[in-house]
Write a structure and sequence with these properties.
Length: 898
């Protein structure tokens, strides 16, 4: 290979594209109308310029749907030019933020994208992540399992700052724009970094003088990083209109530089040439690419806490589709052709339309995120419908004939991938009076005046199960039979609370509510000392006068103090980046006193309410608005916090269940303050170099200390279900529900509960008053403890914190399934289930998950006593039988039963 930097034999590949954020600084429909204009221009250019090679449609197929909703008459033109290779599509459905969506959402984005590509032509086999806010560590394994060998990305290795300007930095993870990217399982792909951004070939001049200035600079920039003679230039940028004279500009460049070959090209051609000339001295980057070796300001990780309400809704819908509706439907329709494939795909598409990086990250204008809430609601309603249908279908197949005639059977399902312990509430219909029996108002009055008897819960052997009747209700309801008109009635309902211990994964148990006086079981109270102490056989929690917790983990005899401190600071940053005002000091809830009230003290759990008040500034001072309007870069702002103060009242419910060492928290508050951040702090006393967090298909280990080049005073990180600090003797796992940002500060786990800001940020001033998150807020989190041998149990408990049990009432009938049943026999403590579903357009059963550890681990997976076959992430069978009984380190596994 020639010496790097020489011009001889260089070949410049110019790829036309437009990075298309569906919604960002303009609402979706505004961007869509510009998209229509872009594609109309493309179709015209394809017809008029035979030298125009192709256009890269940003790696996402949804653009085709967006265009055709406006101009369906041009579908044949799109198909024609895709099949001719003029329009390059796929492989993804949307360009996601991979850290803020679930493991399965990352896979479904690929599966649905490739399925969409089949309708049109062949996809570009490139892991295309041009603007993702950092890149997940398991991307190499995901791509390899999907038949892709190359990834192209813009962030994560080299710093990119305000208005996407590439920042010069000596601390650069690779000296080349090409590198090997290795995942935690040692899968490796070729990585292509847009070292000078994906606009390095944008708006190429046609006049010779301008072209000379342009190319002298641009080629020099590319040669600083290129490892081969093949130089990639991206002709486009964000929402960039088509350069219609690009082929003329290329002619001019070839005239000016006879020693360089300029061609209008595409990624397929470029990747083929690049692979043939890869040098031996490429560097290898490993795992997550999150700009760890930069100054830390533009990692954009604080998007994990921007508009937390979006993250909470995303968790709602993701868990419903992945962990509830799909497993229930798979069990209900396992040997029938009734699985609702099309309904699931519709719901997934609605959900994934919220997953682009400027959408789920919460870094767009307010109108964008209002529309997102509608999409979440649509996907959720489809998921609820599928869940209800599947529950009823399953109930028909489960034998309840052993229960007494006058009983009211109901079935509880654990659709999680590990055993679940905890309380569940089931509403049981005790009696109904159909409208055909009389006037509705008289029926309502009749049931209202009827005294309900004492009740108890039994299992199928007739053994009483400890339960509590906590509420009754008389109300209107209705059935929608599939074979006749709607059936309205007035019903009497009983809310039953049941305690379940170690309910197996993917299983169900059947119970019945019957008339009878329940046994009065004696128990040791969990709540003591007027609510100031919660204690079971695993932990003892003392609530101090300032609202902090002192906790004894009895299994390790470890004490933890000053738990549950709420911290408030100012935030003069934006939707992307947190910035504490100069001279600001954190305000802590522990500086005041706390009231404690007992909420519940029953057999299965104790619950108390802590009420605290924090006096904090009502906003930033008036200078912040001027700095925002004047486009003062956030690091240079001098705004402080207002002198006007308001009271922020925090109400935190703490629940300790009898059979658990996990504390459950729910904090509510009415946010009427602006420009601030609220976190909860857990000082663990565990001083170690690394911590672990739940990420995409891995429990990732991250260093607690920043790189020497890091300047940002904070070190925000992404999480999904949990973050953990542990040493050789003990550990603390903090679980969350839709709270995706945390920071490790020495021995402290800090979880962001809310960040309130007033502008989008980036390349201009875009006010976002709704990002201040004014109004009632409710956040949920949990804390568990473990010793040296039970860390994985702690992780599963944290994962299950996000997955509720499901239930359905039924009648007495015979069925093919027993009243208590494990649908899948799943044994392997290191295995985390991410999907239990049917394969697309097939009734084959698919079970997917991954190894939580970096070691080989035992695993047994059986369905009706049969071993599955091994598949890849495209759900194609690769091995006929899985009989090794183990999974390798950090491995993503897909099992298939035909």
């Amino acid at each position: 290979m020639k010496k790097r930097g020489a011009l001889e034999m260089k070949k410049v590949y110019i790829v036309s594209h437009s990075h298309w954020d569906r919604e960002w600084y303009l609402p979706f429909e505004q961007h869509r109308m510009r998209l229509v204009q872009l594609i109309d221009d493309l179709l015209e250019l394809f017809e008029t310029d035979p030298d125009f090679d192709s256009f890269h449609l940003d790696g996402q197929t949804i653009i085709l749907d967006d265009y055709l909703e406006v101009k369906p008459q041009n579908e044949w033109k799109l198909k024609k030019y895709i099949q001719e290779g003029k329009l390059k599509i796929g492989p993804f459905y949307i360009l996601q933020d991979d850290f803020l969506i679930s493991s399965e959402a990352n896979v479904r984005n690929l599966l649905i994208g490739l399925e969409e590509c089949k309708k049109w032509g062949s996809p570009v086999k490139l892991g295309y992540f041009p603007d993702t806010f950092g890149n997940m560590g398991q991307a190499p394994q995901i791509l390899k399992q999907s038949g892709m060998e190359v990834a192209a990305f813009g962030r994560g290795v080299k710093p990119t700052g305000f208005n996407n300007i590439v920042i010069k930095d000596d601390h650069y993870s690779s000296p080349f724009s090409e590198m090997w990217w290795e995942g935690p399982d040692q899968s490796s792909v070729l990585g292509i970094l847009f070292a000078n951004w994906y606009s390095n070939g944008n708006e190429i001049p046609v006049d010779k003088a301008g072209a000379r200035l342009f190319w002298d600079q641009k080629i020099n920039d590319a040669l600083q990083y290129a490892s081969t003679d093949h130089l990639l230039f991206m002709n486009g940028c964000d929402h960039q209109p088509l350069q219609k004279d690009i082929t003329k500009a290329i002619e001019v460049a070839n005239e000016l530089y006879p020693d360089i070959t300029f061609i209008h090209s595409n990624f397929d051609e470029y990747m083929k040439a690049l692979k043939q000339d890869i040098p031996d001295n490429l560097h290898t980057v490993k795992g997550e690419l999150t700009s760890q070796e930069t100054d830390g300001w533009y990692t954009l990780a604080n998007t994990a806490s921007s508009r937390v309400y979006l993250k909470q809704r995303n968790t709602d819908v993701s868990r419903l589709l992945e962990n509830i509706a799909e497993p229930l439907a798979t069990m209900a329709y396992n040997d029938k052709g009734e699985y609702p494939h099309e309904m699931f795909q519709f719901a997934w598409k609605q959900l994934m339309q919220n997953h682009p990086h400027d959408s789920i990250c919460g870094c767009s204008v307010d109108a964008v995120h209002r529309e997102m809430m509608t999409r979440f609601a649509k996907a959720e309603e489809v998921g609820k419908f599928i869940q209800s249908e599947a529950l009823n279908k399953l109930a028909e197949q489960i034998d309840t004939s052993h229960f007494p005639d006058e009983s009211h059977p109901f079935i509880v399902f654990n659709t999680a991938g590990s055993a679940k312990t905890g309380t569940v509430e089931i509403e049981v219909e005790w009696k109904r009076l159909p409208f055909s029996n009389g006037r509705p108002d008289e029926l309502y009055r009749e049931l209202k005046e009827e005294k309900l008897p004492a009740m108890k819960v039994i299992d199928e052997q007739g053994v009483e199960i400890p339960a509590r009747m906590i509420h009754t209700d008389i109300r209107f309801d209705y059935d929608l039979p599939k074979d006749r008109f709607r059936q309205p009635f007035i019903g009497a309902y009983v809310l039953v609370e049941l305690e379940l211990d170690q309910m197996s994964p993917l299983s169900w148990k059947t119970y019945a509510l019957i008339e009878g006086v329940p046994q009065q079981n004696k128990y040791v109270s969990i709540v003591q000392n007027n609510g100031r102490i919660l204690e079971n056989e695993y932990v003892k929690v003392q609530i101090e006068s300032n609202g902090t917790l002192t906790i004894l983990d009895k299994s390790t005899n470890s004490s933890y103090t000053n738990f549950l401190v709420f911290e408030n600071t100012g935030d003069i940053g934006n939707e992307y980046i947190y910035k504490m005002p100069k001279g600001d000091e954190a305000i802590l809830s522990s500086a005041g006193n706390a009231k404690v009230e007992i909420v519940s003290d029953v057999v299965s759990y104790g619950e108390v309410l802590i009420i605290q008040q924090m006096v904090i500034p009502e906003s930033a001072d008036e200078s912040l608005l001027e700095e925002q309007k004047g486009l003062i870069e956030f690091r240079e702002r001098n705004a402080g916090r207002s002198k006007k103060l308001k009271t922020l009242e925090l109400k935190t419910k703490i629940r300790l269940e009898r059979n658990s060492n996990q504390l459950l928290f729910e904090t509510s508050f009415d946010n009427q303050m602006k420009d601030h951040r609220l976190r909860v702090l857990f000082p663990t006393g565990i001083h170690v170099a690394e911590h672990e967090a739940d990420s995409i298909f891995e429990v990732v280990k991250r260093p607690n200390q920043v790189n020497t080049s890091w300047e940002n005073p904070t070190n925000p990180q992404h999480q999904h279900a949990f973050v953990n600090l542990n040493d050789e003797l003990r550990g603390v796992t903090v679980a969350n529900y839709g709270l995706n940002e945390y920071e490790i500060i020495d021995d402290v786990i800090a979880v962001t509960l809310m960040r309130a800001v007033g502008e989008l940020g980036d390349w201009g001033y875009f006010p976002t008053p709704e990002a201040q998150c004014l109004g009632e807020q409710i956040v949920k989190f949990a804390v568990g403890f473990h010793g040296s041998m039970d860390k994985l149990e702690s992780y599963h408990a944290a994962i299950n914190f996000q997955i509720p049990l499901s239930s359905v009432q039924t009648d007495i009938h015979q069925g093919d399934y027993p009243a208590e049943y494990e649908f899948i026999q799943l044994e392997g403590n290191a295995f985390r289930l991410t999907a239990f579903k049917q394969k697309e357009n097939s009734n084959e059963i698919v079970l997917r998950g991954y190894n939580l550890t970096a070691e080989k681990q035992p695993l047994s997976v059986l369905y009706k006593g049969k071993c599955p076959k091994r598949g890849n992430l495209l759900e194609e069978i690769e091995k006929e039988v899985f009989d090794s009984k183990q999974i390798t380190e950090e491995e993503i596994c897909t099992f298939i039963w035909e």
